[in-house]
Amino acid sequence: MEEFIGKIWHNWVTKAAAGHYPAAAVKLAEVEKTAGILFRAFGGDPGLKVAAATAEQHGARRRWLQRVAGSGEKVAHARRDAETLRLPPEIAAFPDKTLNRDLFLWLAALAASDVAPGKPWFIRNQLACQAALARFPGLAPRYARLVAAHLAERIDPTHLQPDEAAQEQAIRLALQQPAAVDGLPPLNSRKSRPPQPVLLWLVAADEAAPGKVADPGENLPPEGSGSAEAEEDAHKAEQVETPDNKAPMLAMFRAESLPTWAEYVRVNRAFDEDENPDARNVAKDLDKLSLTRDGQTAQSRVRFDLDLPSAAEDDTPIGPGIALPEWDYRKAQLLERHCHLQPMLACDAGHAALPEELAATARKLRGQFAALAPQRRWLKAQPDGPELDVDSCVRNHADRASGHTPESGGYLAQARCERDLACLLLADLSMSTDAWISDSHRIVDVIRDSLLLFSEALTATGDRFGIYGFSSLRRQNVRFHLLKDFAGRYDAAARARILAIKPGFYTRMGAALRQSANILHEQPASRRLLLIITDGKPNDLDLYDSRYGIEDTRMAVHEARRLGLTPFCVTIDREAGAYLPYLFGPAGFCVIRKPEELPRRLPLLYAQLTRQ
Q: How far, in Å, CA of 341 to CA of 473, rounded?
């Protein structure tokens, strides 16, 4: 009975405290795509992704009922940093669901109109509001409704201390008339509280010196090394010094309570590095995460399955390697000779026939693609040729009889209709392709079958093509596997090299794209297609796993287009819609929802892309 009464009391007092209306709540997942499209359409940075912010304690004064209910202590501030637009995971600030949805869209428009980076938070938001309303006048009615609803939910200035009331009045005026207030009045007492959160504004992201909290150097673990769920939240962070005391817990005990050497046993804790299932919940309860460097990096503890194989087991390097540039979007600069790409050839692959399970599909594709092969056709009214053109001869005779000079010849000649195109197929061979998609097939097996059927189909057309694979282990070791070059034939040796591919390492896509573009650019063809097969976004052990890798890949795609090539990406990543439009454009990619369909659909997709 006590628990039942307690639930009723808690629900009532929470509702009476106001500021939270669960029945009208709008979750970020409902408007994430709309907010992202609006942010980019309004001129926001297209490289930013939209993600959820984490609630933090604001320390502002609360209403009496909120203190009784224990609510209103935290708020999820909208913020923008170099890689992410963070929006609240849920907005339930108003009783009207439409207003809560409009607040999401207004925050996206405000983030896109940030015209004064580096200014104080109070001034910066006013200028952004002014710019958004000036550029997009249609937002004014929505903004006015949001301001009126938000001011009604804030504590009345008459209930605050004089210095707090002055700040509240300044915020209210700044909301109603953006850019009308030069600054916030100072707080005069230590007991004074900071102003209440302004839900219509972005909070300034914590700015740290480069490398202070997360050094973008080579020795950082990848951002994506955690679980997907962990990436949904963001926390404030502080840099702290590593404690000098290697055993800080010893300071809590007196010397006589310590075990003797005879009592001490070193235990092998085999599960220290296992993921803690409660880590996410614990992190949510923390307002600030403390980070430190202990001199060790995640790379020093990389699992053995990601280590480089021995020379006896590895593919054979071809030549000393190739130095390639890489785009650093932070400096807006192409870093010359920043990556080292090593061409490689499968060692002792031998010769192999087409697997029996693919034979029937290969015969069908060869029959379909044979229709695309160059055919001979007759050209009429030629000055010379092996046969007479009867129609042209009759027309010429009629012209002479009427006193006109014939304008065309009277022979038929044969001409060969060439398909003047070349295609380079680049396959992602990173460790992620080792994942199973069924009881019998992995992603790499599907890619292998796709390459074989693709080769069978293009052999029937006579088109020139090359096939390469790539993986990487940091920028100094981008592995570029030669499976079939343009000069070589697709034969038993090429099939054996394709069958010998194996997954490993990471996906530094920019360097592989640049080398592929250089190879394809040398082919004498009027149309040149650069086809990429991948199962995920660019990543590597260093900062390439962040926006850095996305921007470098995007720049490599632009470079390929400037060379006259047509890059096109085929992926089985269902989340690719969040980043591939930014990399390849809205019509530059295709998502295969069912990976097992890739071998059958890839040749047909090629036929569509190369249709005259």
A: 11
Residue 436 pairs in a beta bridge with 442
Maximum mean pLDDT: which of 142-156, 240-254, 282-296, 393-407:
142-156
Residue 256 is assigned to a structural domain of this protein: no
Q: Rounded CA gap, 171 and 183, in Å?
A: 9
Higher pLDDT, 387 or 216: 387
Query: Got the DSSP string for 469-481?
Result: EEEESSTT-EEEE
CA-CA-CA-CA torsion sign (349, 351, 356, 362): positive
Domain annotation covers residue 426: yes
Instruction: Indicate the Cα dihedral angle 273, 278, 280, 285, nearest 10°.
Output: -130
Residue 469 and residue 384 share a domain: no
CATH label of the domain that carries residue 532: 3.40.50.410
- On the question of pLDDT at 309 being above 80, the answer is no
Q: 195: how many CB neighbours lie within 10 A of its CB?
A: 21
542 within a domain of the structure (yes/no): yes
Beta-bridged to residue 73, according to DSSP, are none
SS (H, E, C) 588-607: CEEECCCHHHHHHHHHHHHH
Domains identified in the chain, total number = 4
